[in-house]
Amino acid sequence: MEFDVPDDRTGVGIFDPIENARFELYTPEPVELESASTDHFHFPVTHAVRFDATAVEVPKLVSTVVRRHDGEMLADATASEIQTFGSGTYLVELQSTPMKLYLTVDGPMEVHPGETSVTVKFGQNRRVRVGARSFHERPVGTITVTDDVEDLMAAMSYFGSALKTTTCERSFPTLRGHPPRIERGEAFDVLDDIEKADTNVELVLPPDREHVYPAASLSYYLGAEVVPGTDPRLVAGDFEYSLAGSGGYEATVNRVLKQVFFLDCLTRTEGYYPVELHEREQVEPEVDLDFAGLYDRPLVEQLPEYLSVPFEVLEPHLLDWHLTTDIVPVAENVAALPYFADELSLLRTPENPEASAVEPAMESVEEFTRAAVAAGDFTRSASADADWGDDEMFQVDPAETVEHAWVGEGYPINANKVTIDALHREAERTPPDESAIEVHVVCNDPRMAEENAVSEFYGLRDFVNYDVTIHEETTAAELASLLEAPADFLHYIGHVDEAGFRCADGYLDAESLDSVGVEAFLLNACRSYEQGATLVEKGSRGGVVTLAEVVHSSATKIGRALARLLNSGFSLRSALNVAKEEVVVAIEYVTVGDGGLTLCENDSGAPVKFHVNQRENGPLVEYTVYLNSSHRIGTLTHFIADSTTHHLASGKVGPFQLDKEELESILDEELEPVEVNGELRWSNEISVADFE
User: Fold this and answer.
1) Are strands 542-546 and 518-524 parallel, antiparallel or unpaired?
2) How far is CA 326 from CA 101, 329, 397, 408, in A?
3) Are strands 518-524 and 393-395 parallel, antiparallel or unpaired?
4) pLDDT given at position 370
5) What is the DSSP secondary-structure string of 58-99?
6) Weakly modelled stretches of the chain, pLDDT under 50
7) What global pTM score does this model have?
8) Nearest partner of 49 among 60, 40, 61, 58, judged by Cα
9) How do strand 239-242 and strand 651-657 relate by DSSP bridges?
10) Quick count: other Cβ atoms within 10 Å of Cβ 618?
11) For residue 43, which of 105, 120, 101 has the smallest C-alpha distance?
């Protein structure tokens, strides 16, 4: 973490080079920053500074939790009224910021929420300490396994070593570390400093990959010992629960994960964060659970109580789960398990897809393309009759989650094709030397120059510095140089075919590159998936590619939307999820590599998309929360017009009936996508007048 004084305001800037995230706190007077000890904060921080000030302004209306110096919560001071705190030492926790931030100060003090900011006033000059830590988590240690499935079961028994607590508080993402890596080798081996969690919970599973792979997330979250047995079941002390329930084994495992996690989120409101939680208010009257009594009980005693509640009772109130991952159950994919366990992804084990030359799902794309070309549009294919590569595509079974990933051979329609190398690169990523995000926009066809406008969309953010360069009609050597040099993102506009990227003097095949330095990319051209897969193979972390021909007008809309969404903190996967709503047909776009990577962080927390529909008594608003690497499942969110009640962040929240003033405050808060009566718009392009 790095601290500095902002160029244009008095105060302190905080920069996280790992996540390319910056945030600022403002003061009425200039400050001199001094390094401070991290010991003054009850919660862990990695870096801290101190300075003297009469007040500190948080330039976003984020949740501001005031605690005693020992961590005991006193108030969530984000409500509209001013709150006063007397003498004493206080810890002020800022939530929904790009990095975890804490302030410590001696009182008395007042917290003044405004329309778009929160100010902590001290009345006189006081010593303030600011502590910060990155949300970034890396796997600690590696476990070597042979291809014997029982070795994998033994390795998964160590996944819980990464949990920072085995209480229900582990449902907070910052209290879950990354499970150890798994690699294949000649003999089982685990480092001495990797210790199993002590939960007295077991998962008894048949020793085959079809049973073991789907249990990775559950074994991690429960800190469970994974042992071989005939009938799949969860064992907690004297309590046993069958995992061969309704819908089959995989469905049961995923239901148990969702149910235990969800009830942990409700129980934890008795602890460090005794907030008003919407989901608890909805569920508590319908279940016979003593949340206060459950809070201090060990996991082995909580599980029988949790699982005594019929899933059907909880299901209407569950948060929308964020991710389903289909992982083909072969030995080569074992290394992916710790990464998706860390995300608490729901896991399924399909068979390897059979190659198919003609996919029914692509028929709508071809029909749309023919109609668009007949009407005068054109495609981004360098060849009018390109028909190569279809045998590698297949239709993946749909998932009832916000996002969907695939680990295996082939290219799935409507899912992120993940590679093991891309996951490893994310974990090994080192902080960049420069704080600016470097973006190259390459347009190799003058007819597509209108998409160059995306250069204006990268960088429309406070606290984020961009260095955006436009390159037109590049030669093969020039494009190769751009791809091989270090950069954060490359947005390619043009043509791709079997020979590679079409350039001003011929073609560039990604196979000819020695290595790739670009972290992420968008290849907005026809059938760009093979070139994109090669970029990932040679060093990139991930990107967006196409599986078929794309019509120019649709591609331009997709490209512009992706630029704005990535600039707003959406991951590649979630950005593509939203951008596809811009066009009638968009299934030809998919992500390859690590679809969970982000270009930058959202200033106010997890990125959201608002949905606004006009009603006779005013706008009806709900919003969808998209999780990312910094705001994972278990994160809390609160609506700007209802700051006293919190919600679990994932999927849709609301609806809320607003007046025009409340809607205006939302539109002015931050640059966000807004779906208005079914049409995707942007908050800086609409106003309250549009709803009159």
Assistant:
1) parallel
2) 36, 9, 9, 8
3) unpaired
4) 58
5) ESS---EEEEETTS-EEEETTSSS-EEE-SSEEEEEE-SSSS
6) 356-360, 380, 382-389
7) 0.86
8) 40
9) unpaired
10) 14
11) 101
What gap in Å lies between CA 271 and CA 292, rounded to an integer? 9
CB 365, CB 395: distance < 8 Å? no
CA distance 556 to 525: 10
Query: What distance in Å separates the CA atoms of residue 354 and residue 361, rounded to the nearest whole number?
Result: 15
- Residue 426: C-alpha distances to residues 22, 344, 520 (Å): 20, 17, 11
Rounded Cα gap, residues 627 and 639, in angstroms: 16
Helical spans, DSSP H, in 77-229: 149-156, 209-212, 216-222
Sign of the four-CA dihedral 587, 590, 595, 598: negative
What DSSP character marks residue 266? Answer: H
Question: What does the alpha-carbon distance between residue 370 and residue 168 come to, in Å, rounded to a whole number?
Answer: 55
Q: Which residues of 492-501 are buried (b: 16+ CB within 10 A; e: fewer)?
A: bbbbbbeebb
Of 252, 263, 255, 399, nearest to 322 by C-alpha is 399
How many angstroms separate the CA atoms of 21 and 629, rounded?
Answer: 12
Rounded Cα distance, 680 and 615, in Å: 18
Q: How far apart are the first and last CA of the chain?
A: 46
- Of 60, 245, 227, 61, the residue nearest 153 (C-alpha): 227
- 3 state SS for 312-347: HHHHHHCCCCCEEEEECCCHHHHHHHHHHHHCCCEE
Q: Do β-strands 673-676 and 679-682 pair in parallel, antiparallel, or remain unpaired? A: antiparallel
Q: Is 149 left (phi over 0), alpha (psi -120 to 50) or beta?
A: alpha
Here the tokens at position 176 are 């879950």
Residue-level pLDDT at 386: 46
Q: What is the pLDDT of residue 485?
A: 96
Please name the residue that has the structure tokens 């989901």. 279
DSSP string, 221-262: HHT-EEEE-SS-EEEETTEEEESS-TT-HHHHHHHHHHHHHH
pLDDT of amino acid 653:
86
Task: Say if residues 562 and 546 touch (Cβ distance below 8 Å).
Answer: no
- Residue-level pLDDT at 460: 59
In sequence order, the β-bridge partners of residue 518 are 487
Strand pairing category for 518-524 and 487-493: parallel
Cα distance between residue 168 and residue 159, in whole Å: 17
Q: Record the tokens describing residue 292, joined without a space.
A: 């206060």
- Taking the CA atoms of the chain, what radius of gyration do you get in angstroms? 25
Closest of 434, 405, 445, 410 to residue 597, by C-alpha: 405
Per-residue pLDDT at 381: 59
**Ramachandran region, residue 266 (left: φ > 0; alpha: ψ -120 to 50; beta: rest):** alpha
- Rounded CA gap, 325 and 212, in Å? 14
Assess contact for 688 and 616: CB atoms under 8 A: no
The continuous run of DSSP H or E covering 56 comes out as strand 47-58
- Where do the domains of the chain lie, and which CATH numbers do they carry? 2-133 (no CATH), 142-344 (no CATH), 360-593 (3.40.50), 608-691 (no CATH)
Length of the chain, please?
692
List the beta bridge partners of residue 64: 94
Phi, psi of 345 (to 5 degrees): -70, 145
What would the two tokens of residue 178 be? 């990354």
